[in-house]
From TrEMBL, chains A, B:
Gene name of the record: fur
Cellular compartments per GO CC: cytosol
Sites where the protein binds Zn(2+): C88, C91, C128, C131
InterPro entries the record matches: FUR, Fur_C, WH-like_DNA-bd_sf, WH_DNA-bd_sf
Localization (cell): Cytoplasm
Recorded GO MF terms: DNA-binding transcription factor activity; transcription cis-regulatory region binding; zinc ion binding
Required co-factors: Zn(2+)
Source taxon at top rank: Bacteria
SUPFAM superfamilies cross-referenced by the UniProt entry: Winged helix' DNA-binding domain
Self-association state and partner proteins as the record states: Homodimer.
Primary site of residence: cytoplasm
Protein family per UniProt: Belongs to the Fur family.
Example GO BP: negative regulation of DNA-templated transcription
Record-given protein name: Ferric uptake regulation protein
Length: 134, 134
DNA sequence: TCTCGATATGTGATGTTATTACATTAGTCA
DNA sequence: TGACTAATGTAATAACATCACATATCGAGA
């Protein structure tokens, strides 16, 4: 299951950019950071992101149109659980967590309602502890 | 508590458009539907939506950049739990529900982590019962 | 080796979503 | 009236994402 994916050149560049960043980046920010490496067009970024999302190495934050490297790189122990994100609106930091009870309750609802789930987004917006006390 | 908000002309037009729709609409779709009523620019829609979101009469679906009239018109009191949405990718129908356990678990995490939550998004993408059996 | 097919890449144009900036209008109230 | 506030009108632009088409790269057979 946990295959180590061979990344292509562009995928590697995009993934490294996200890994080095200390918060989520938009596709266009990634593009700008990779101009020096020959990137010229948005599609180069979006295509790489698509694969990285497939591989589970990157997450998309729907509520801010941004992307972030997965916080649990080689640990897929939570891979059948849904991942939730807490996004600080002050500093931009994202905390990733997974809660079995939430996963369970969502599954409960989908089962009860015959809904075939493909992807679930859970994003909490607010102010993180560090920014809240500052 | 549940104040009936006086809606302005544009807010009323936008809200009625969303209410009549049998699924979520994008801001630009709303705009097109209201051209006959004098709407000319996106901002007219976005400004109305902003207020309607404030009033809790409309929800924004982050994962599809669209808006939908609240399914529970009367008691929109914020003290109730977080609202989750199941969005069918076949027919576009949205089911709105609220789960106390999920609300509880999210609050638990935010409390434990000193995160001051302002807004939470829970969106399930997939195929609804009707489309799944069809 | 050559050719085929699959995958990856390059590039410009276009489509879609959202905001900024500034002008105008309408209602409230001292 | 005048001054203040909320709502509206409009153009331009910013931000996010995809389409269409050309080219390149690489591995599996003939």
């Amino acid at each position: 299951m946990t295959t180590a994916h061979e990344l292509t050149k562009n995928q590697t560049l995009v993934f490294n950019t996200l890994s080095r960043a200390d918060g989520p980046l938009s596709a266009y920010t990634i593009l700008d950071q990779l101009r020096g490496d020959g990137f010229r067009a948005p599609l180069q970024v979006y295509r790489a992101l698509e694969k990285l999302l497939d591989y589970g190495m990157v997450h998309r934050l729907e509520s801010i149109n941004a992307f972030v490297a997965c916080a649990h790189p080689h640990n897929h122990s939570h891979s059948h659980g849904m991942t939730a994100f807490a996004i600080c609106e002050k500093c931009g930091q994202v905390s990733e967590f997974s809660d079995d009870v939430i996963t369970q309750r969502v599954r409960q609802w989908t089962t009860d309602n015959g809904f075939k789930q493909t992807k679930t987004t859970i994003e909490i917006r607010g102010v993180c502890a560090a920014c809240g006390t500052a």
